[in-house]
Amino acid sequence: MELLKQRILEEGVVVSNQVLKLDALLNHQVDPALTMEMGREFASRFREDGITRVVTVESSGIPVAFATAYELGVPLVFARRKKTLLADPEALCERVPSFTKGIVTDILLSKQFISENDRILFIDDIIANGDAARGLVKIIQRSGAELVGVGIVVEKSFQAGGKAIREQGIRLESLVRIVSLEDGKITFDE
Ligand code: 5GP
Predict the structure, then answer these.
(1) What is each CA distance from 160 to 15, 73, 75, 127, 151, in whole angstroms?
(2) Which domains does the chain have, with CATH numbers?
(3) Does this model's pTM top 0.85?
(4) In a mutational test of the pocket of ligand 1, which residue from 94, 126, 154, 176 has the highest number of ligand atoms less than 8 Å from its CB?
(5) pLDDT tens string 107-146
(6) 122 alpha carbon – ligand 1 mean position (Å)
């Protein structure tokens, strides 16, 4: 998605060889017009797949997942992050390490909002090592729903997450792929 590449070049801040700060676009401030454009792009890629629900994890995945769900005309469900594991028989739960926060959090999704009849599109902002995505994939699989695909705004393809998800046989679509952040320079996969 060329428009997104342009915005990332203009507004992204390379923090290290591993981390790109995207607060101006994804993780703090949200541009509604750009976000709706991302939603349209994901929706066009999954339009023929009979998606019944879009699922994401709070908080940075919510705007783009909302835009995608709106375009597809289906509900958005966002999994919640909890710092403690509360015994809740009505929730599916996975414990995942957080790439940016350096802590472990529990991701919860109520069984009320996902069922074995669902065809799920999982949307998230960034994939790095893939821990968050792996947790969500497990929750979706345990619910009995079908995971149709994963849509990621920014795939850092020099880290293992995207490849690992695809190796599980899961369709993963990313809007932009970054192959390197070396020397403070953002390099996209053309
Ligand atoms: P993973 O679980 O794939 O290692 O990391 C995924 C989550 O960590 C993303 O949802 C994102 O919020 C955060 N994250 C990972 N890498 C980066 C990065 O380079 N920049 C920012 N801003 N967040 C990141």
Answers:
(1) 19, 32, 30, 9, 16
(2) 2-188 (3.40.50.2020)
(3) yes
(4) 126
(5) 999 999 999 999 999 999 999 999 999 999 999 999 999 9
(6) 15
